[in-house]
From TrEMBL:
The chain crosses the membrane at residues 12-34. This is Menaquinol-cytochrome c reductase iron-sulfur subunit. GO terms for molecular function: oxidoreductase activity. The keyword Glycoprotein does not apply. Keywords: 2Fe-2S, Disulfide bond, Iron, Iron-sulfur, Membrane, Metal-binding, Oxidoreductase, Transmembrane, Transmembrane helix. Residues 90-160 form the Rieske domain. Gene3D superfamilies: Rieske [2Fe-2S] iron-sulphur domain (2.102.10.10). It comes from the Bacteria. Pfam families: Rieske. It is an enzyme of class 1 (oxidoreductase).
Amino acid sequence: MSDKDQGVSRRQFLNYTIMGVGGFLVAGTITPMLRFAIDPVLKADAASDMVAVGDISEFSSEPQRKDFTLPVVDGWAEYDMGLSAWISIDEAGEVLALSPICTHLGCAVTWEGNESHPNEYYCPCHDGRYTSDGVNIPGTPPTRPLDTYEYEVRDGVLYLGQPVQR
């Protein structure tokens, strides 16, 4: 048979096959990289991570414990995470939402939990103490202040987000 009778030579067929397989391999490698680069643009707003915990008028300078649930998306799993916060408002009108988890060993912190230490947050596990603004008292086991929650006030309603280490 002559070359004019054949549409594609063996060399051309092999070249097309290798180029096609190589193209699929490159596309399979680049696609996750592009998804990684574009993913932050596709993420939801941080404001949607906030949940309403109550009317701002419910809170005063005296810390109040408020339990709430925050929706969490972890890969394909979606669930509600139960959280708590000690919420107070200072003289300047600023909201202070503190995590009730001790920064020493993770025990639960309570407001005025010890009669000998009034107006302080107290951790009963190892006598950890914090001032009313959540700062650890020197000479007690905690090495850093209580974490605070992200917050915002919209239309008189207090919204809390994730805890933030300070």
